[in-house]
Amino acid sequence: MVDDIRIGIIMNGVTGRMGRNQHLERSLMALKQEGGVLTKTGKRIVPEVILVGRNSQKLAELSEKYSRLPWSTDLDSVLSDSKYSIYFDTQITGLRYDSVKKAILAGKHIYCEKPSASHLSQALELYKLAEEKKIKHGVVQDKLWLPGLLKLSELIRQDFFGRIHEVRGEFGYWVFTGEFELPQRPSWNYKKSEGGGIIQDMVCHWRYLIDNLFGTVTDINCFAMTHIPQRWDESGKPYVCDVEDAAYTTFLTDRGIICHFNSSWCTRVHRDDLLTVQIDGMKGSAVAGLRECYIQPAEGTPKPVWNPDIPQPINFYEGWMKVPDRVNYDNAFKAQWKLFLLHVVEDFPFPWDLLAGAKGVQLTELAYQSWQERRWVKVPPLK
Ligand SMILES: NC(=O)c1ccc[n+]([C@@H]2O[C@H](COP(=O)([O-])OP(=O)(O)OC[C@H]3O[C@@H](n4cnc5c(N)ncnc54)[C@H](O)[C@@H]3O)[C@@H](O)[C@H]2O)c1
What we know:
- By secondary structure, the chain is an alpha/beta fold.
- It has two domains: 5-142 and 332-352, Rossmann fold, CATH 3.40.50; 143-329 and 362-377, Dihydrodipicolinate Reductase, domain 2 (2-Layer Sandwich), CATH 3.30.360.
- The chain contains nine helices and 18 strands.
- The longest helix is centred in the C-terminal third of the chain and has 20 residues, at 354-373.
- The chain is globular, with a radius of gyration of 22 Å.
- It binds nicotinamide-adenine-dinucleotide (NAD).
């Protein structure tokens, strides 16, 4: 349509897991297929994507799949093309800072995967540079748009819990080592030099989740381990895992809520989902997975009595009620992309910016410090 707002987006790292599945296919191509994002003025924002990466063959195949999208292996030349106003980065974490910095200096708006950089100093530098250049910026915080967590957030808003005292997050699953089965995560996740480590991967998620739902994180205590010291890479070659593959982390918030999150690539799942978050409050409790959420109000709480000499008389799962889907939930990444595009085009508020991203990187560094020094660490406010 003549009135469409066509917006050029450079997608770097798009042949990877997140880039291809979540950001290209389920977000931008899905939005394009729906006819774009509707603005206040009734126009539609239509993404015009160029694929950028290292491997021409993979890029060409991907391009073919989506009606011949343009592609390039030369980031510098694409950055100098004024047709593209947004730079999106979903490369491996270790490459983020250099590429995002280049894109800011080229005057592009920035949207990127988490973590926004490998170190706090770099993450803050990117934020300051983006502000100086007056460009729009955002960092992926997808968990906030997961249906299960949206339901939790709504329960909090309606004061279902009363005073919340604790939150328990269980994240993880068994990631195959690659010795006999193909691993379902890339090998760089287990290599320090390439930005791997489960603290690096997950603590930034816990930061925005807790900050948005339970109050600002003020203190952290983390212990981690490398449970599996050797894995096999994509070509079947063994390598040494020199980063942690499980982290056991406790956070305190300024609302006095204690949040404990276990994150592990070495655990076998016996729970409702790959991530479950339980909230316990005076008036009720809830447990959310990625999509579903179950509640138990105070009035429906069973009264267990400890007696291991008889079979458990209570079926604890029966005392929970499923929160129904009252709306249609979008893919979480797509939901945030929509808001980012509205932010770029019509200044829609978008607090999930490079400063919020830097807060995640800050907490990641403090988690490593806490683990190394075996102690609680304060989390200073970031301005
Ligand atoms: N938001 C989320 O839930 C979520 C989940 C997983 C990963 N991530 C983030 O997304 C980013 C990409 O993760 P992924 O799981 O898609 O990784 P991946 O290995 O599947 O993809 C990495 C991408 O980076 C590119 N790349 C450039 N240089 C590379 C190099 N030297 N080695 C390997 N790849 C290189 C690859 O070509 C590929 O396109 C990471 O920063 C990660 O933290 C976010």
